[in-house]
Amino acid sequence: MTQLPPEQRAPREPTGLDWDTILTGDESRPRRDARAGGPSGRESQGGEDPFAQRDHPVAPRTNDPFASDDEVPLTRRERRELEERQSLLEAAPTTGPSEAQRPSRAERRSAAGIDDPGAPTKPKRRGAWGCLIALLVVVALGAGAFFFLQGPISAVIERFQPAADYEGTGSGEVTFMILDGDTGSSIAENLYEEGVVASSEAFYELLLQQEPEPEFHPGAYRLAEKMSAKAALEALEDPANKLENTFVIPEGTATADALSIIAEGAGVPLEQLQAAAAESPQSYGLPAEAQSLEGFLFPATYTVDPALDARGVLQTLVDRQFQALDDAGVAPADRWRTIVLASLIQREAGLRDDYYKVSRVFQNRLDPAQWESGLLQSDATVAYGTGNTHRVSTTDAERADAGNPYNTYVHPGLPVGPISNPGDLAIDAALHPADGTWLFFVTWNLDTGETIFSTTVEEHDAAVAKWLAWMDEHPEYQ
């Protein structure tokens, strides 16, 4: 395409919109429109010069899409450009006194509740009360976790810890009895109770590891205190440690059980011992009130002459009880009452100091001024009357049975006779009760023997509730 030389070209008006006219609306101002021609007014050789000055007026441009015939609507592009310019004019900042009062962007966003991510945040400061409350919450949560998890954690620790055990062969001397019918677990428990081993578990676990399984023979054995489980097992298997004609009667043992122990230790047939015990108690020197030898077979370790017969062996034990009463300062006329009360204390008390408190409870109840009914209400006496000498718990029906002469829930005063063979401690407690106003007691922890002593019914009811809760957690005692 050829073009005219520069000197022959007509000057062209810039194409586009006359924004000043459109925006101001002043139609009287000259318009600068390419279609209105340029100032030189030339034509091209091929026809009308597009840049020539026209002799007819050009229709005004309008933004109205429904413009009249006298107005030419803006094209789409022109309309868009117009809108953009109008937006720019509206957004242009103004100057003057009002500018200083205009809120900032951050202030506007804050008033609208919008956080400005670009603005620096101020660290929040906790007050002293907030820190204290947070600390108390942490302490409370820690204490609660310790309280609720203490039991499970202790159980887990105990499960994976080895059983307590001593080292070596021990010291001192202990005469240990194995009775007919004792099992490995009962032997382990008896060894622990008599201070031979550190724990029954250590001995029993060792016992289970033995092949073949050891055989234990009834009788008395010479052991020591604080022996390792291994040393105790070896000593029980060594025939040299078996004592001939020796036996041990534990404190609180009933006469029926004592006869079996004597038979196994002394080698005297049980039938002969039972026949000798059935003879008149007065023939052994017992008080006139006695109906049997119960209470007068002193609990101790005995080594008897092999030549003694059944009656001779029993007389040895009775004489030893008379000696204990004499040593305690009990007159012969007071032997019966002392032995009956001591046998009751022996069966009911657990810990050593409790012997004297239990004695005080029974003696307070025997005082009409403090306990009008005179009922001792001892479960141990009721159980003895049923023929059960190995427990002290009873049922409602047993406590209501008036046909049981030993039932101190029904019959006031001391029971009709002793319910066990008491030792020196129980005899001393019967003679020297502790000072106190207690009328009730309950052994709430059967594992440790802990006992609660009370003066009022309300205090006793609370203690019984504690015992029942403990029993619920230890179904093995039920």
From TrEMBL:
Which ranges does the record mark as transmembrane? 128-149
Species of origin reads Agromyces mediolanus (Corynebacterium mediolanum)
Q: Where is the composition biased (Basic and acidic residues)?
A: 26-35, 73-87
Task: Tell me the Gene3D superfamilies matching this sequence.
Answer: Classic Zinc Finger, Endolytic murein transglycosylase
What are the EC numbers?
4.2.2.29
Q: What is the name attached to this protein's record? A: Endolytic murein transglycosylase
Instruction: Spell out the subcellular localization from the entry.
Output: Cell membrane
Per the annotation, which location comes first and is thus the protein's main one? Answer: membrane
Q: Name one GO molecular function term.
A: lytic endotransglycosylase activity
**Gene encoding it?**
mltG
The protein's topology relative to the membrane is: Single-pass membrane protein
- Region labeled Disordered — which residues? 1-124
Query: Keywords, A to Z?
Result: Cell membrane, Cell wall biogenesis/degradation, Lyase, Membrane, Transmembrane, Transmembrane helix
- One Pfam family it belongs to: YceG
**Leading EC class:** lyase
